[in-house]
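[audit] Reproducing an earlier prediction to check determinism. Same input, same settings, fresh worker. If the tokens differ from the archived copy the diff job will pick it up downstream; this log only records the rerun itself.
[audit] input (175 residues):
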Amino acid sequence: MAKKLNTKNIREWAESLEIGEEILLSGIVYTARDAAHKKIAALIKEGKELPFRLKDSVIYYAGPTPARKGRVCGAFGPTTSGRMDNYPELFDNGLAGAIGKGDRSSTIIDALVRNKSVYFIAIGGAGALAAQHIVACEEIAFSELGCESVKRLEFKDFPLFVAIDTRGNNIYSGN
């Protein structure tokens, strides 16, 4: 049975999660892929304002296809998370969770443990199904990046699995 959780109180429940658990996530989530991560990391380094508050936020490594008429967004599946592994400073600046697909580097696993953050995986290849759980989508930064711009999403029972918990247990390594 999947746990229904909301991003509003992620820090209250994140430490109770264990690898392999299925959750249905609701609440506000932001998109950011490698190009956006590079820009966000530069803003952190320069001490400039970020496009959204990292503290207690969740990022979904994804970029949508164009929305069909009457839809909030197009297909919205996860992208390979390893491309974001050069940016542990996002977790060090408060990021509570990330959603993607694939394993993470030891650098990111260390950042997850250090910051009591969690990494979720979404089902790859099911972007059209995933989009049915996104009830709002608004571009908020880096429009020049096209589908990789930063977007503010609202999830409703978005299906995920815990891949790396706050203690560093990793579904990919079996520990």
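[audit] rerun output stored. Observation attached for the diff report: The chain is about 20% helix and 25% strand.
[audit] end
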